Amino acid sequence: MTRLDAKIPSGPLEAKWDRRRFSEKLVSPANKRRIKIIVVGTGLAGASAASTLGQLGYDVECFCFQDSPRRAHSIAAQGGINAAKNYQDDGDSVARLFYDTIKGGDFRSREANVYRLAQVSTQIIDQCVALGVPFAREYGGQLANRSFGGVQVSRTFYCRGQTGQQLLLGAYSALCWQIERGRVTMRPRTDMLDLIIDEGHARGIVVRDLVTGQITAHTAHAVVLATGGYSNVYYLSTNAIGSNVTATYRAWKQGAAFANPCFTQIHPTAIPPAETQQAKLTLMSESLRNDGRLWVPTALSDRRAPGAIPSSERDYFLERRYPGFGNLVPRDVASRAVKSICDEGRGVGPGGQGVYLDFSDVIEQQGADVVRERYGNLFDMYRRITGEDAYQTPMRIYPAPHYTMGGLWVDYNLMSTVPGLFVIGEANFADHGANRLGASSLMQGLADGYFILPYTIGHYLATTRLDLPVADHSVSRAAVERVTGRLNKLLQSSGGRTAASFHRELGRILWDHCGMARSDSGLNRALREIPSLREEFWRSVVVPGSGETFNQELEYACRVADFLEFGELLCHDALYRKESCGAHFREEHQTADGEPQRDDERFAHVAAWEYREDGPPILHKEPLTFEFVQPTTRSYQ
Amino acid sequence: MKFTLKVWRQRGPDDKGRFAVYEARDVSPDMSFLEMLDGVNQSLIPTDEEPVAFEHDCREGICGSCSLVINGVPHGPDRGITTCQLYMRQFSDGATITIEPWRARAFPIIKDLVVDRRALDRVMQAGGYISINTGGAVDGNVLLISKEQAENAMDAASCIGCGACIAACKNASAMLFVAAKVSHLAALPQGNPERARRVMAMMEAMDREGFGSCGNQYECEAVCPKNISVRFIATLQREYLRAGIVESGLRTEPDSADQESA
Ligand SMILES: Cc1cc2nc3c(=O)[nH]c(=O)nc-3n(C[C@H](O)[C@H](O)[C@H](O)COP(=O)(O)OP(=O)(O)OC[C@H]3O[C@@H](n4cnc5c(N)ncnc54)[C@H](O)[C@@H]3O)c2cc1C
Ligand code: SF4
Ligand code: FES
What is the CATH number of domain B118-261? Predict the structure, then answer.
């Protein structure tokens, strides 16, 4: 039976993290060499954790499915990373970053975790600069900042539109150093397909070598999952094609509680889908909302070209509805506003699925060169995909699944409900509540990996019996058999449908019923449709080739099989949460003017789901108590 | 639109490999090149024929996974983009398109269009980093770095490690890739202490991995999706010369030479 103990240190908010670090037991340097840690994932969270653990002297084995750790999905992050440096002297502070993040998350995250995140944010920037990350600079040589949604200070650090790339290359280079020193063994092109548990503790993983097809068990004294988010459950998202839920979902089936799966972020500014075979959606960074203005024609039937519509006949709907934050409202607020405009029939472009993101004012005021310097690569990207020049005509944008706040439940030490299983980065649920603010995922990934996990994992290792043999052979064998059985079943099934066709259908169901707006009837419908789609999948999916070779279709079918189960958990959670908060909008719970209605009486808790083999998952609640901030109605007006 | 595709198929490293011909039908000009290939694969799978293996992940030009030689040119006919950023509107309806993998001694073929590029990681492991520990870094604004310097470092740091430069080069030289990394770190004060050691180690690793030497033909720059400039190769050569002088114990600039021998 799962017990949720968040293990939050006592005392004032500012002192909690120091206290925890001081009270933690340490592992002696001599012992570290004998301790093996598995890190799955080499995004910002995984690469920073693996390199730091290697540096501390642990024996680290690190896995990713790409051919190189440098290609993890984090590489695609565009806009920037937050830190409470207050270099602009515009009133920023640790307390303000903390408050913005708690409020941005609609009061559904833990105060203690978020405060710690704000505290370590400043160290992250220093660490990255030391690693050679070429952050944008002012003429005087100081670090430059830009603004992101949901805040009124300028605290976002960036490297052109390639911040994720540069931060990841920094972490990857640190990892390279540890690999060279023999402290980290790197295993690219390896898929984690199951978790090994021995006497209640996580003691290893089962992987498939994606080149040879070989399935092996790898054991360790602790396992760290840094495997990213599950937005691809929607099929079309802004995530990399390979992003998946398999690692965290398999861990769930082995007993790790899954928290708030229904908190999924739909990003307001992606390029609208153009045709039916489309494989993914492309994000246009939130930073564009610093200078771009969202609008649609005021009149319903106005079909004129955007340039021909005078500004008196344009509805700058975010500025109108949210004068305080204007175009820089948080993502959930912006996405819902775009959706309601399009639902009213005022959307632009094919199928009315889009609104304008217009730069003509800033171009007129500051010149095209300034815009080019700030966003040139995004404008280029937009032109290549749509064939349109956004310097001349406004961009068209539409919301897209982008990020998942839900994830495996972890305590303050980032340990899941399975002792010895730690979860960091987007894969855990911890810091963003019901909605994540822009530029704060990169911050969280690096906070977890460089500065938090390396401490907290030591305490676990120092207080468990390490003289026990690592993973009993019979549990490893059983886990390998589970994996082989599943793969064989996929290979033997001999219908005529491709895995992608099922994935697309699942995505459609979830987008319609568990996307930007959710309702009792829609969710119940999804909960009927998903199981039958899953049955159909196992009856008629076709996977050519064998398991003993490089077989991309087999890799993919495995992931789709897990999405087909996980989609159900997502809807369960969404159905259970009868309130609207952050990105989770229940149609039954809104005010007369369409603003979400939160219900703190009944839902100020984390919903953590425990897997059960025979029957629906069991719900555990972790109450959220607010000692330092007062939950209020989130207002950006 | 429709196209005839001549695609390189090779079961594994020991297979000889051959071209296979496929028809791509119902292609929309708004499709990306990889979506067009997805379409071909979707039609092969139900017939139980193995789909064409190719590498991809981000599909937005930043991860460096995608790696196709299209009509003889790495990343295809358009300049300054990756394979995944190529759209079918660039091709004329009815055309025949040849698709091959990166070919280079250091990049053995795994299957069809997928090659093993771990050699690039090993070159990075040899020295493509600043060896500092986590924690204890000084405030980011202590080091003032001019805007020009930061932009120059960023120009070099934009390399996505795709290997197109190597695939385009007659000698399969990795000079542009190594130049990008060396120039990025040499442009910043943080990179200074290990400057000489880094360039020596990376150049040695490059030779060890079987990459060829630079013939100054600049095919690399022409195919680089990130427009990494060959001027960085000049920087690399300068850094290498300078390191040779430092290694042999002669002093270059009085300050940095001291740091490097420390
Ligand atoms: C287009 C885009 C732009 C973004 N821009 C920003 C931004 O500007 N600022 C910001 O803060 N955030 C941004 N985000 C969000 C942010 O990029 C991600 O949330 C973050 O990078 C996640 O990092 P991670 O380390 O947790 O996981 P990831 O980077 O997703 O890494 C996951 C790792 O796990 C491995 N893995 C996964 N599954 C398995 C498996 N089964 N077996 C083995 N290995 C596995 C992968 O190989 C990979 O190495 C953006 C996201 C997108 C999609
Ligand atoms: S230099 Fe250009 S072509 Fe070569 S690996 Fe880097 S990005 Fe690719
Ligand atoms: S798939 Fe990532 S660069 Fe092309």
Answer: 1.10.1060.10
